[in-house]
Amino acid sequence: MILLDWYQQWLEIRTEFKAKKFELTREVKQEEVCQSCETLRNQLEIANYEKKLLLDRILATPEKEPERTTAPELVAARPRTIPWHVRQQMLEKEDREKARALRNAPKSDSEKIDVSELEKELGVAEKAREQQSNA
Questions:
Q1: Which domain holds residue 5?
Q2: Does residue 91 lie within any of the structural domains?
Q3: 64: helix, strand or coil
Q4: Euclidean distance between CA atoms 28 and 41, whole angstroms
Q5: pLDDT tens string 117-130
Q6: Are 43 and 51 in contact (CB under 8 A)?
Q7: Rounded distance, CA 2 to CA 87, Å?
Q8: pTM surpassing 0.70?
Q9: What are 44-86's pLDDT values in tens digits?
Q10: How many domains is the chain built from?
Q11: Cβ contacts of residue 116 below 8 Å, gap of 6+?
């Protein structure tokens, strides 16, 4: 019996030692957590959350597109290089349209009224002549 009592005491001492050692290491680990480790942990959490969202988005069943009642419009593909004679015709046509627009454009008032007519209305020319003759 003495041997069993001794063995029981030895096990109790051993478990107490392990418990104290565990508490000490846990306290030390809590104190050793630095700011950069916390930042990295937060960034990892954010990255994992974003990955989860992307996976959910990819694995989600796609919505069906509504059926079209009309055919899609086809865009005529223009060649990248235009032959010179075609380009020349396009430029000439644009020039003719510009010339026609300039000819048909309304004339401004300053071009229609002559300066001498305005001077007659205001009598500026007559006053200038009277001043020269009086001087």
A1: 1-31
A2: no
A3: coil
A4: 19
A5: 766 777 777 777 78
A6: no
A7: 115
A8: no
A9: 999 999 999 999 999 988 778 878 778 777 777 666 788 899 9
A10: 1
A11: 125
